[in-house]
Design brief:
The complex is a heterodimer of chains A (about 270) and B (about 325).
Chain A (H helix, E strand, L loop, with lengths): L1 H20 L1 H26 L4 E2 L2 E2 H18 L3 H10 L3 H5 L5 H31 L8 H27 L1 H4 L3 H14 L11 H7 L9 H7 L6 H16 L1 H14 L6
Antiparallel strand pairs in A: 1-2
Helix pairs in contact in A: 1-6, 2-3, 2-6, 3-6, 3-11, 4-7, 6-7, 7-11, 7-12, 7-13
Chain B lengths: L1 E16 L3 H10 L2 E16 L3 E6 L5 H8 L7 E6 L8 H5 L2 E5 L11 H11 L4 H15 L14 H12 L6 E5 L7 H18 L2 E5 L3 H7 L2 E6 L2 E7 H8 L3 E7 L5 H7 L5 E5 L5 E6 L3 H14 L2 E8 L2 H11 L5
Parallel strand pairs in B: 3-7, 3-8, 5-6, 6-7
Antiparallel strand pairs in B: 1-2, 1-4, 8-9, 10-12, 10-13, 11-12
The chains are: A mainly alpha (about 270), B alpha/beta (about 325).
């Protein structure tokens, strides 16, 4: 158990090194995220106009929502679906199969390494800049921060699970770029990153309660902006936990079937 | 004790073929034509501990597919596989700890980071003690002379440098069984020699069993006593390398280089009494005679040819392994 842990930690370290090897990506990432936050800030200002609040969210809460949603995205977002697809298409998955570890576990660890790197070197400094420029309210309540980080951990888990499913589907589709792109748009849209779920029409909200996407962005952002209060917070966390458990089932089934039909492409 | 026990191993691939034209493309959307290809067809093979076995065959003969089944990457369609006493596919995680694999055409090091970082990760992956790593790996690093490469990222290494690092990575846990899939592909002679020496060394020292596929027959001559020849998924020869040489051709090869162009028919006519086969040589006006007889016959043949034509050069050789293999590929197995 201890040695397994140290193997995973080593993988985290390697991913840190890899992120550092590509510094330009890192700098351009900061720029893109700042532009996004800025653009949504001005968009929401225009939408609010003179109104005090829309759907129970004040303009300050809304700005905070946008900023925190993007900063959280830096943590939970990763490219392991694309990496898995690439490794399958190039036949590199063969090399992974001769290693005495769980491939999906290792990929998750790489995603976590990427996420932590961005959280520390990207979200935190980025948040300071955003806080200086835009009117954002941070909670003084430590328990809100604690709940937010728990919720953020679940965001990572659910998003990574969806990425794993998308990645493994490459075994069956062999060419997967379209699906990966579609998945990214669906997550940005239905997770509450671009628009809080409560802003959607009722029928769309009803559908979304049956989908795992709101566990990715909407829930942690609402907790942070104190859009959820009291019992709502705990039932939201419970929903995240439920999805983390449920999504294990399709992953396990897909992986078992993928292992059986593994064809190493390219010789 | 057998390290590898394979019985009746089969692997079938479905390969889809596309129909012609636009209409065909639409029909392909609904139902697809496929053919079943037997990549590996009923192979039975046993390898003992400490053996160095060359697994050879033409491109597409099923070599890599076999290796992938032996290493647990692919599931066999039928047949039994026991390697190191385990089922490679079902007991994957435990099994792969006991093997090392090098794919000549695929890197298993992390591309963007320094070689030593990859080694460090592998050390954790295989749960090696510092002690084991320091003693065993230091030796490997010294023998392969990769010490100065350790702090360079893999993408900056030359092919020869990378290959030596790959080999070191595959041996980090000192596995009793090593699979090498075309380990010397694209390497220069010096690196090849270094790698061969190294493989011999670990085979001698740790009794490491080595199964390698290659297209470079000098690899086999340098390393392996046993050869397994594969053709269209079937084993057509399994035995000692020198026996293959003996069985296939007794006799010698004579390379003639004539001063003037010579017709093949004229040569055949001239040497009609001899058990000889003529083939155009590598050089201009060069012809190569493979004589199936004793030294006496050979010298008589040479005398006859040289008395009829002016010769600028003549060479007398044993039939090379390459020649034998080429004959087998072209004509199939007849002898032995």
């Amino acid at each position: 158990m201890v040695s397994r842990m140290s193997m995973y930690l080593e993988m985290l370290r390697i991913r840190f090194l890899m992120m550092l090897a590509y510094r330009t990506n890192y700098y351009s990432g900061i720029l893109i995220y700042s532009i996004n936050i800025g653009a949504y800030y001005f968009l929401w200002q225009a939408i609010y106009g003179g109104q005090e609040s829309i759907q129970d969210l004040s303009i300050v809460q809304m700005t905070t929502y946008v900023a925190i949603a993007w900063m959280a995205r830096a943590f939970y977002f990763n490219n392991i679906d694309r990496e898995i697809a690439q490794e399958i298409q190039e036949g590199k998955v063969a090399v992974e199969m001769i290693r005495p570890y769980n491939y999906l576990g290792m990929k998750t660890m790489q995603g976590l390494g990427e996420g932590l790197f961005r959280l520390l070197f990207f979200s935190v400094p980025g948040m300071v800049i955003v806080w200086l420029v835009f009117p954002i309210s941070f909670s003084n309540d430590l328990s809100i921060w604690g709940l937010f980080f728990i919720s953020l951990m679940f965001s990572f888990i659910v998003n990574t699970q969806i990425n794993l499913i998308t990645g493994i589907l490459t075994f069956f589709l062999l060419y997967n770029t379209g699906l990966i792109r579609a998945k990214r748009v669906v997550i940005d849209l239905f997770s509450g990153l671009l628009l809080p779920i409560s802003f959607y029409p009722m029928w769309a909200q009803d559908i979304m309660t049956f989908l795992p996407f709101q566990a990715i962005s909407y829930i942690p952002s609402m907790i942070f902006t104190e859009g959820f209060t009291g019992g709502e917070v705990y039932s939201a966390l419970l929903l995240q936990l439920m999805w983390s458990v449920i999504l294990f089932v399709p992953i396990t089934l897909l992986w078992m079937s993928a292992r059986r039909r593994l064809i190493v492409q390219g010789g | 004790m057998n390290v590898i026990e394979v019985h009746g191993l089969k692997k079938q691939f479905k390969s889809y073929s596309s129909r012609k034209g636009l209409g065909g493309a639409f029909r392909d959307l609904l139902t697809r034509n496929y053919t079943i290809l037997n990549a590996v067809d009923d192979i039975t093979l046993n390898v003992k501990q400490g053996e160095m076995v060359a697994y050879i065959g033409e491109n597409g003969a099923g070599k890599s597919t076999t290796i992938k089944m032996l290493t647990g990457i692919l599931t066999p369609t039928a047949g039994e596989v026991r390697v190191n006493g385990m089922d490679p596919h079902k007991q994957r995680e435990a099994f792969v700890r006991t093997i090392g694999v090098v794919f000549g055409q695929r890197s298993q090091l992390w591309w963007d980071i320094a070689v030593q970082e990859s080694f460090r990760l592998l050390k954790k992956v295989y749960r090696l003690s510092d002690e084991h790593y320091d003693t065993h790996m230091k030796e490997v690093i010294d023998t392969l002379e990769i010490e100065p490469l350790l702090d360079k990222p893999v993408r900056k290494l030359s092919l020869g440098q990378r290959m030596r690092c790959e080999l070191a990575a595959a041996l980090i846990h000192n596995p009793p069984l090593l699979f090498l899939d075309e380990p010397t592909i694209g390497l220069d002679v010096l690196v090849k020699m270094k790698i061969r020496e190294f493989l011999k060394e670990i085979n001698r020292k740790y009794k490491t069993t080595i199964l390698l596929t290659t297209h470079d027959l000098s690899d086999i001559e340098a390393l392996c006593e046993r050869v397994v020849l594969l053709d269209e998924g079937k084993i057509i020869y399994d035995g000692a390398l020198d026996k293959l040489q003996q069985n296939w051709v007794e006799g010698k090869q004579v390379h003639f280089e004539f001063q003037k162009p010579v017709e093949k028919n004229a040569l055949i006519e001239l040497t009609a009494d001899f058990p000889v086969k003529w083939r155009a040589g590598d050089k201009m006006r060069g012809w190569q005679a493979t004589v199936d007889g004793d030294d006496d016959t050979v010298s008589k043949l040479m005398a006859k040819v040289m008395s009829h034509y002016s010769i600028s050069d003549v060479k007398l050789n044993q039939v090379s392994t390459e020649e034998i293999i080429r004959n087998i590929y072209e004509e199939g197995m007849r002898h032995g």
